[in-house]
Amino acid sequence: MPLQLYNTMGRKTEEFRPINPGKVSFYGCGPTVYNYAHIGNLRAYVFQDILARTLRFLGYEVTHVMNITDVGHLTGDADEGEDKMVKSAAERGKTVLEIADFYTRAFFNDTDRLNINRPDIVCRATEHIGDMIDLIKRIEANGHTYTAGGNLYYDVTSYPDYGKLAGLNLSDLKAGARIDVDENKRNPFDFVLWFTKSKFENQALTWDSPWGRGYPGWHIECSAMSMKYLGEHFDIHTGGIDHIPIHHTNEIAQSEGATGKKWVNYWLHNEFLVLNKEKMSKSSGDFLTLQKLLDKGYESGDYRFFLLGGHYRSQLAFSWQSMDSAKNARKNLIQRTARLLESAGINPAEATGSLSAGNLGSAAKRTENFRTALEQDLNTPRALSELQTLVKEGLNGTIPPADAVKAVAAMDSVLGLRLLEEAEGKAADSTSSGAEFFTDEEKQRIEALVAERTAAKKEKNWARADEIRNMLSAEGIILEDGASGTVWRRIPKTGV
Ligand code: AMP
Ligand code: ZN
Q1: Backbone dihedral region of 31: left (phi > 0), alpha (psi from -120 to 50 degrees) or beta?
Q2: Closest-lying ligand to the alpha carbon of 252?
Q3: Which atom of ligand 1 is nearest to the CA of 37?
Q4: What atom in ligand 1 is closest to the CA of residue 271?
Q5: CB-CB contact of 275 with 304 (8 Å)
Q6: From CA 97, how far away is CA 70, in angstroms rounded?
Q7: Nearest to residue 187, comparing CAs of 166, 201, 172?
Q8: For residue 222, how far is its CA from the centre of ligand 2 (angstroms)?
Q9: Beta-carbon contacts of residue 359 (< 8 Å; ≥ 6 apart)
Q10: How far does the centroid of ligand 1 lie from the alpha carbon of residue 240, in Å?
Q11: How many angstroms does the Cα of residue 73 sit away from the middle of ligand 1?
Q12: pLDDT tens digits along 257-296
């Protein structure tokens, strides 16, 4: 089945056809580095990561570009309020550059911990001001701009398709539909391409431009940098759904206003992470960071696992209870994978098989289902459940363990749970009683059998007692009868 993606432009699921066969050009909007990313923001980057990994898994060569916003983003996306970077620097008594550096590093620290692959190109807005000025000149030359109060504005009425992505219809738009304090705008939907002295006198970073010394609006950086690195027409652009009505709508007006042609083929947007039914946001009181989850005893993999359990286009409700479920489910999966590795008797480093290599034997059906789940608009909950079933089948003998391990490696190249690494760590630790190898459910079953055997022995039902001992022994569990009762122990098969 060819890859199907839901395109916000047109609001339907479409077959993905890249502009250049076998290659994908992909731009994802990056963070504004004035504060830590909250776990809702991180959902957007796990989504970008899953998209890039899926495309690679399906055999595409991917160029993934992401920006870092370190100038121009105001507290309101529609040019209202203060500059986020300047505000944060003033509050913390730092320079804007110090703030940008600190939170950029914090951002990548979070994404690394979540096993999010670094994009191929990461570009900072402040390092591309010349590209933005050149693009604004083209937009101006095409008659899409006006100057008012010292700022250069994009005139949305000059671009007939304005609002297409969000399904906005300019003729229906009422003045003041957006709370807008900028009286210079002819239309409330117009937006700033270049600010000069008019907006903030205390702007830390300014540059010379044909419109006066000043700094760029937020949206222009994404148009300028994506085209610089991916060309004037590229395949995929992503962001959170909040970007649809303003940021991405304005990016399209700028890019297509400059080139006069179609800019992006597929627009993909992730839904929000919500907390108490509200979007998690940097300004809300419930600002949860990845570090806060770690401080509470979760691992970063638990949060990644939690996110994969929801489809990217569905809202996902955060709760500590659901984090606990994710943590337990992930722990179970790692424990089972550790047992699988052991029965397969292969080194995880050897298990880097790929689905296309046709070396998966009877794991092929499961891996085919996994691929299909991803091809259906990146259905990670289904893909994850195929992986869980595969591991069970590897343990119960439906699939030879060695085939199952290779398939786990291939699937995890997309899910990024570092399963084999984690399982290998477990196997190395497991020389003690081995109880940590078993899920709570399995431990309960073993303990119930041990109790049943004790009762059988009391009743002198030796046949049943032996039957239970043999059954557990076949699973690698030995029973030791002592003065204080029977204890069970796992015997590692490979002598780790
Ligand atoms: P920002 O750093 O504010 O520009 O946001 C970074 C990314 O996070 C953008 O793609 C937003 O759309 C996305 N985002 C913001 N809040 C949430 C949320 N609660 N859930 C999911 N994504 C979000
Ligand atoms: Zn952007």
Answers
A1: beta
A2: 2
A3: 2
A4: 21
A5: no
A6: 8
A7: 172
A8: 5
A9: 353, 406
A10: 5
A11: 13
A12: 999 999 999 999 999 999 877 777 766 667 899 999 999 9
Tell me how far the alpha carbon of residue 411 lies from the centroid of ligand 1, in angstroms: 27
Ligand 1, atom 17, residue with closest C-alpha: 40
The pocket around ligand 1, CB under 6 angstroms, is made up of 29, 31-32, 40-41, 43-44, 239-240, 242-243, 270, 272-273, 279-281
Q: Locate the ligand 1 atom nearest the alpha carbon of residue 238 and give its number.
A: 10
Question: Which residue CA neighbors atom 7 of ligand 1 most closely?
Answer: 41
pTM of the model: 0.87
Q: Which residue matches tokens 């109060």?
A: 149
* Atom 21 of ligand 1: nearest residue by CA position: 272
Mutate which of 48, 103, 242 for ligand 1 pocket (most atoms within 8 A of beta carbon): 242
Cβ–Cβ < 8 Å for 99, 46: no
Among 46-55, 235-244, 400-409, the minimum mean pLDDT is found in 400-409
140-154, 180-194, 471-485 — which is least confidently predicted?
471-485
Write the burial class of residue 365 (CB in 10 Å: 0-12 exposed, 13-18 middle, 19+ buried). middle
Residue 438 in this model has a pLDDT that exceeds 90? no
Taking CA 203 as the corner, what is the angle to CA 200 and CA 207, rounded to the nearest 5 degrees? 115
Residue 83's pLDDT is what?
81
User: Which residues 6+ apart lie within 8 Å of 16 measured at CB?
Assistant: 2, 3, 4, 5, 266
Flag whether pLDDT at 353 surpasses 80: no
